[in-house]
Amino acid sequence: MDDTALVIAAQNGDREALRKLLAKHQDGIYALIRRIVGNDADAYDATQEALLAVVRGLPGFNRQSRFSTWVYRVASNAAVDQLRRNQRNPAPSANLEDDYANTIARQDAHTPSFYTAVEDRLSIDQALQLISHDFAMAVVLRDQLGFDYAEIGKILEIPIGTVRSRIARGRRELAQILGPLRHSGAEGTNENHPTSN
Amino acid sequence: MTSDTPQTPNEPPTPQGSESEDPQDELVSSVLDGEASPEEETQVRAQSKLFERLSTFSRVASAVGAPVAPLNELSARRMLDEVMVEVVPGEDAQAPPRNTRSRWQRPWPALGAVAAVILIALAVPIIGSLNNSDSAKQTTEEAGVAADATREAHDSDSAASSVRGHASADGSTDERASDESDTHAPSASAAAQSTWLGDFDTVEGLANEALRVGSLDNALDASGALATDDDSGTAEYGSANPSTTPADRRLEEEMAASTPALCPPISLETGETIVERFAGRAQGVDYYVLVTETALYTRRVYFQQWADCESHEIVP
User: In which domain, by residue range, is A157 found?
Assistant: First the structure.
């Protein structure tokens, strides 16, 4: 049963259809949020909030857009809300070096010592935390979930040109942050580092 | 080629120089995504610099697109159960007990909360000095476990009310139960206000009982249920004046003989309030148990071995 049929059934009170609908998109929602918020616990909470929001908003969903578009819009909002909650209630970092790296990254992304400091431990999750969540969201929707630019534009409610720009800028910043990881890997060298051009 | 600039008010500062970096990044990125024209793709592949950039972006895309470990089946099902219960009236009968959601793996902010909560529950005279923080920290790390459950909003309201009623029955801490986010030290009688839940085989069993009792409409009924449910002979029942129960007297005596220690302060989340205090035993170890509720109506249970801490501080 496709989304439309499930949505109609759910809107008509079919609980099983509602559950199937949620289950169908649960992993994707979690994957998006997990990449954006950067840890399992927050991702769990935000995913649950997103699902709650979906169910609460389902009666008003007019089916003029794809259900998945609407769902991932809700999910992206839930992820941003979670980030904001974290900003309001910052947890003391268990790794002060990460905070330091974060600070340095925002102050000067071209400082070589920053790359040296983080190259062995900076994961893609951490890297995504260092860039604008607007950029991160667009990149994750594209690279993690495979949406095309038009769909991403609908999800984020921005023009396609802005989608293109955000993805490019997000990748550029991620490449800056992750450059040394490539350098230490089997392929790629710092010659590819964007700041060296 | 479009060069739209996102206009978001909360966008963090762009790293210096990034705007002036390769202006063809959008072109390269579009080619990578199959969103460019054949001519543009030819252009990118024909220029070594752009082709290198394409390779760089490809690696970044692969990293971002690496599979995210999905929720395990149990967690996924539990989440759906909780969502359905939360928003679909009448779903309760089909859903597993909502108070079984485990938070054991919640990262360390919760562990911090554990420490604070524990200290609250200890609620004995503050005699600890600040010279034993290492042992307190160790205790927190070793003994801190947490569980929570999402509840329906109306349940949480009634539960919170019941806790306030339970506390006021003691006549000494009416306001504390409803305003735990304030910074203050516990009264010496706080431990005596903790309802004894019983003796359990596992800490999770104790947690579930705390959540179950904390979910009932009033503490007095909950205490009765405890007495009925427990057939081990070791559990005592609470009452409107739990300090009179044998279990609480035993706890008070044991606490009086405990070694003072100072537990670190904790920070409850915004909107997270303490709604119930309990004491209980699991695997032969006595615990103080605190049930909290977040602004999102998520219930959490915090534990601490009662003998480990004697003072506490809550940071609002």
Answer: 122-188
Average confidence (pLDDT) over B95-105: 33
SS3 A69: helix
> Mean of the pLDDT values across residues A30-42?
93
Contacts of B18 in chain A (CB under 8 A): 109, 169, 172-173, 176
Residue B306: CB partners within 8 Å, gap ≥ 6?
B118, B121, B122, B191, B251, B254, B255, B258, B279, B286, B287, B288
| CB of B280 closer than 8 Å to CB of B289 | yes
Which residues of A, range 14-73, sit inside 8 Å of B by Cβ? 15, 18-19, 22-23, 26-27, 30-31, 34-35, 39-41, 44-45, 47-49, 51-52, 55-56
CATH of the domain at A49: 1.10.1740.10
Tens-place pLDDT, residues B207-240: 777 777 765 432 222 222 222 233 222 222 222 2
Q: Which two tokens stand for residue B51?
A: 């082709």
Contacts of B25 in chain A (CB under 8 A): 168-169, 171-172
- Residue A43 falls within a domain, yes or no? yes
The interface predicted TM-score of the complex, written ipTM, equals 0.78
Residues of B in contact with A166 (CB under 8 A): 6
Among the partner residues A44, A91, A166, nearest to B6 by beta-carbon distance? A166
Q: Which of A66, A88, A110 is the last residue of a domain?
A: A88
Residues 6+ apart with CB under 8 A from A16: none
Residue of A nearest to B91 (CA): A15
Same domain, A9 and A66: yes
Q: How many domains are contained in chain A?
A: 2
**A110 reaches B (C-beta below 8 A):** yes
Report pTM: 0.49
Residues of B in contact with A139 (CB under 8 A): 60-61, 64
Q: Which of A47-51, B172-176, B280-284 is least confident?
A: B172-176
Given A62, A88, A114, which residue is the final one in a domain?
A88
